[in-house]
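Final report, closing paragraph on structural work. Over the funding period we assembled a curated collection of sequence-structure pairs, and we close with a single example.
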Amino acid sequence: MDVENTLKLEDHDGHSLELGWSSWDDQERSVRNRYPTSSGGFSPHSSSELPVRDVAGIVGFLAGHDELDPQAISSMIAGLAQSLQRQIGEGEEHS
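Its predicted structure, as stored:
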């Protein structure tokens, strides 16, 4: 995976999320749930890499089974609303 962005998760020892170009296709975006090893690398068995295009389906599936807690849902809604504003442009007039 060609990593472009990393988010270190504060509540976990070295656990982070990574975003970049996938390890299977340099034209596809992916996200990895990275867990470090004691040697400083990461475990490919516990650090899954997924296509970004699959994430919405995964979140929808979990929501459909009430597997996400209300605080996580609220945080996702806020982040998604911000992303939507950036993508469609704030202040644009819509007919």
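The mean pLDDT is 90. Residues 2-88 form a domain with the Nuclear Transport Factor 2; Chain: A, fold (CATH 3.10.450). We thank the funder for supporting this effort.
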